[in-house]
Design a protein that fits this description.
- The longest helix is centred in the C-terminal third of the chain and has 21 residues.
- The protein folds into two domains: about 250 residues, FAD/NAD(P)-binding domain (3-Layer(bba) Sandwich); about 150 residues, no CATH class.
- Strands 17-16-13-14-15-12-18 form a seven-stranded antiparallel sheet. A five-stranded parallel sheet has the order 6-2-1-10-22, covered by helices on one side.
- Strand 8 and strand 9 form a beta hairpin.
- The two termini are about 15 Å apart.
- Helix 1 packs parallel to helix 13 and helix 2 runs antiparallel to helix 6.
- The protein is an alpha+beta fold.
């Protein structure tokens, strides 16, 4: 009689582990249990419904720079299954990926359903059973056998378990894993936008700036890239990256902090003052509001002028030094108070999870409990936005599958 694997979690990591383990060992009985009524939910919504499968980065040293937590762990794991392997895996199953200018990779169909259908075909091909609305309440291990107590009072007795239940927002939700001897890095939100209630800049919602530099006041945390102004505050890649790198520090401060933004990162206050002196000569008779020489969105430029108390009729030649200094300071070092966060769309990501020193990076097997494996965000690994979290899922899911398939053949 063949052995049984139960994968807890029907997300990217769980599915990838299940279908690959079933493929590598056809005698292995594989079941996915998912507590919600749908599987691959994050795959469905990722990238605006297009699914940001991975990132076009083929140098491991560069790739790991995109993981605020777990970089060294993944550097070792990537030697077994990297971005190039992800691309080949999907291509071998008829799913061609394309890269966009920023390195994000999507299926050429621009539809996440393409990825979902591919994984479902694999599950059907290799007989993977999928149980929805089924939650694991507890796991026990006696006489070399696991017992999983399910929410509907049923019990499963698999030979192998892979926990791929994703990032859990509360420490108490890890209790069933802690009973198996594991230590949990307390989870805190990562990848969130900055709320700025009452700030007038929110009236510019929809305005985007292609390149800004943001720094969290009083820290060394900074980020550079595109920024989007929203009705609640600020979002965009520069903000999301900063939220990931500062996840723990910002949580400790209850998400109350200040940021400084250089809206013109090619300038500092001294070089911008030199530029202004040149503009006052070249554009002397023109109104500031009509002549924006920095390729900033017009609505944003008008907002900056208002902040510096510069009227719509003010000409460059008549710009008082005090107002000019105020404008330069705001352009290079504008300060904004952040009071709270908002989860980025439906792409909830946590920093925290099972401590990595308790997991064998070569197999994803627990060092505390034989035949117990982990994959995906349940581990204390998280990446910035751009396909990096999915690559963690594919990599750790594949490694766990390979190890389980080999062990189940023994």
């Amino acid at each position: 009689m063949g052995k049984q694997l139960v994968v807890i979690g029907g997300g990217a990591a769980g599915f990838f582990c299940a279908v690959n383990a079933a493929r590598m060992n056809p005698d292995l009985s594989v079941t996915i249990i998912e507590k919600s009524n749908k599987f691959l939910a994050k795959v469905k919504v990722s990238g605006g419904g297009r699914c940001n499968v991975t990132h076009q980065c083929f140098e491991m040293g560069e790739m790991i720079k995109n993981y605020p937590r777990g970089a060294n762990f993944l550097k070792k794991a990537f030697h077994q299954f990297f971005t190039t392997d992800t691309i080949k895996w999907f291509e071998a199953r008829g799913v061609i990926l394309k890269a966009e200018a920023d390195g994000r990779m999507f299926p050429i169909t621009d539809s996440s359903q393409t990825i979902i259908d591919c994984l479902l075909r694999e599950a059907n091909k290799y007989g993977v059973e999928i149980l929805l609305k089924t939650e694991a309440r507890s796991i026990q291990y006696d006489d070399n056998k696991f017992t999983i107590q399910l929410s509907d009072l049923r019990r499963l007795a698999p030979d192998f378990i892979c926990v791929a239940s994703g990032g859990l927002p509360k420490l108490s939700q890890f209790d069933w894993i802690k009973t198996l001897g594991h230590t949990i890095a307390e989870p805190v939100p990562s990848l969130f936008t900055f709320n700025m209630p009452g700030n007038k800049i929110s009236k510019l919602m929809g305005v985007s700036v292609p390149d800004v530099k943001i720094k969290i006041s009083g820290t060394k945390l900074e980020s550079q890239g595109p920024l989007l102004i929203t009705h609640w505050g600020m979002s965009g890649p520069a903000v999301l990256r900063l939220s990931a790198w500062g996840a723990r520090a910002l949580a400790m401060g209850n998400w109350q902090f200040a940021i400084n933004i250089n809206w013109l990162p090619d300038y500092n206050e001294n070089t911008l003052r030199e530029k202004f002196a040149l503009l006052r000569t070249q554009l002397s008779s023109q109104k500031l509001i009509n002549k924006n020489s920095f390729q900033l969105p017009q609505r944003l430029w008008e907002y900056f002028l208002q902040q510096a108390n510069i009227s719509n009729e003010m000409r460059w030649a008549d710009l008082p030094a005090r107002n000019q200094n105020h404008l330069i300071s705001f352009l290079c070092n504008g300060e904004f108070a952040v009071k709270g966060k908002t989860i980025f769309k439906e792409e909830f990501v946590t920093a925290g999870g099972v401590m990595l020193n308790e997991v064998d990076v070569n197999t994803m097997e627990s060092k505390k409990q034989k035949h117990l494996y982990f994959a995906g965000e349940i581990l204390d690994v998280d990446g910035i936005t751009g396909g990096f979290n999915f690559q963690n899922a594919w990599t750790t899911g594949w490694i766990a599958a390979k190890a389980i398939a080999a062990e189940s053949n023994v």
